[in-house]
Each structure stands twice: as C-alpha cells, then as structure tokens.
Write a structure and sequence with these properties.
It is a single chain. This protein has a six-stranded mixed β-sheet, sandwiched between helices. A three-stranded antiparallel β-sheet has the order 7-10-11. Strands 8-9-12 form a three-stranded antiparallel β-sheet, with helices on one face. The longest helix has 22 residues. Helices cover 34% and strands 23% of the residues. It is α+β, with helices and mostly antiparallel strands. Helix 3 links the parallel strand 3 and strand 4. The two termini are 42 Å apart. It is built from ten helices and 19 strands. It folds into two domains: 123 residues, Creatinase/prolidase N-terminal domain (Creatine Amidinohydrolase, Chain A, domain 1), CATH 3.40.350.10; 213 residues, Creatine Amidinohydrolase, CATH 3.90.230.
Amino acid sequence: MNHLKQIAAKLSEFHIDAMLCSSEPGEFYAVGLHGEGYAIVTADAARYITDSRYIEVANETVKDAEVIMVDGQRNYAAALNEFIDAHGVKTLGIEDGYMSLGQYNALTKDLHAKLVNANGLITGLRASKDEEEFARMVRAQEITDRAFAEILNFIKPGMTEAEIAAKLVYDMMRFGAQRTSFDPIVASGPNGSKPHAIPGPRQVQKGEFITMDFGCVYEGYCSDMTRTVALGEIDGDKRRVYDTVLAAQKAGIAMSKAGVPGADIHKAAAQVIQEAGYGPYFGHGYGHSVGIEIHESPNANSRDHTPMPVGAMVSAEPGIYLPGQFGVRIEDVVRMDQGGCTDITHSPKELIIL
C-alpha cells in the first residue's frame, strides 16, 4: 500500500514542486513502511531514503519509488539533494506540524530547495480513508471487539484495574494486533470520573462501574473503543447517567455524515447531556478522527467547524464524569458517508451487568 499518486496529484494545489514526508505517519502514508527515513515525491517520481536498519524491509515493501540507503559516504541531505537537483525541485513542501525546529533548521541549511509549510497536504489526504485503509480499520476493530467479549468473562470482584488492562492487551495481541494504539484506560468506581485515568492497583468492587478505553493497530491502522460496564447491580443515579450517555452517543451518530461540521455533531450529543442536567460534567469533545494515528483531523468538538469529508473515520465518545463518584463513557468509531455513517464497532452498548 502507498499513496504516492495521491500526494503527487496535490502538489500544484499547494504550489510546490515536491513533498517531503519526514514524520512516521507521513512516511507510512506515503510508502507503507514504518521505518526511519524520508520519502520525497514529485509529480512524476519518488524516492525513499533510509539506513541499513530498514533497507531490507524497504526493498521488500516500498513500491513505485526508488529506494536509497544512506551510509558513511552519503548522508540524508546528500541523497535528498541528488533527487532535488535531478528533478529541478525549487520549492519543497514539509510536514511542519511534525517537524522539530532543529530538523527544520538543518534542512533549511542543507537542502537545495526552499522549504514550504504544506502539512495540510498529507493530513488532508489522510482525513479520507480509502477502501484498503477502511478494511484495515475494520479488522483492527474486530480484534478489539473480540478482546472486549473476552474481558467480560474475565472480570471478577477484587481484580485490579491493572490486571484487566493487561488482559485486554494480551488478548488483542494474541488475536492479531501489531500493538496497542494507546495505553489502555481501565477506571473503576471513583476513578471513572477521570477520563484518562491510568490503570492501577485499585480493586474493582460490586455495585460500581468499570470504564475500559482501548484499541489496537492492525497493519498500521488504529482501532479505538470504550465500554462502561457494571459489576453487579447499580443504583438509579448510575443507570440514569448511563442512559443519558448512550442517548447522547446515538444523537451524535444520527447527526454524523459527510458534509456536516464536527461542531454540529458535538452539539447534537452535548445537547442531550445538557438537557438531562449533566452539562457541566461533559468537558471534552464528542470525537476525533482515527487512522494511522489515534488522534487525527478533523475533530467532532465544539471548536472544529470543518465539514466532515467522505471516508473520515471519527470516534463517537461522549461521557459524563461526576468528580469523586463515577464516570461513564461509550465509544464507537464511524465512517462518514454521503447521507449517513457506518459504525464499525459491534460490541453491545446497552448496559452490561457482570
């Protein structure tokens, strides 16, 4: 898999002669390899440059681009300049959203082309997933759903949050994941009011919620899901909060389709929570794009008015967090389609009582 043709087709729009992909996600998007190096793309040529640690896998993996290895005789700048000079590159787009100041200064000094900020070229393309990307994300979610089904039979009173997190990671790996897409969150009881709680030694107890937020990477693409389950019977306040969050998520999903600004999707979910009297306890955005990275653009929050493109993969994760008491979050990932969306998360989300 690569997206060299798509990058080449966008160069004129950004008024550049070539695009330099230097970030890990940009490199992977361009040539389909998670290594260390640079991909440089013009309208009719491409070169991928790496070192001896990755050259063998690069030769096996990278298609439609010349593969070059740097060594003691030729460094990255020299290999880039060979390509720049040979193809008459005067303006070179860079991923300014990822590049450090040190890297920028070094490339400005060493390269035979003017560097132009063009982060939006790559992030714009990455916002819309093609069918191959979508298939990988579906497979990543299938693995995640399967791990959730396993954990429901594993959780017992007295077990620690850390034990539950470890089981989730183990199962995703044994079911085919490359790695986790982020460190899993397992938050029980009062820890549930912390949206990004770190799993620890706290033992789960009867009559409380357990929120689990986790995901994996399959062939370079992420999954992301959250489920909140009850360990034993819960009181009416907890059920009201759960039902409110579920209704808010359903309202956001109903609003989700290509062309709708992310802020409108967020508003649809937030309004449900506000009307139920829990408005002050929903502080984060409704969702974010997912793909090669666990957080991409555009977002479904109150500040992002970008219309959702066809093929965007966006999380749907409203929550309510009552400080010192408990919290509830429910999360799916949906694809933005014309006229609606496709939910790729298939784990049940009606309240599960273990």
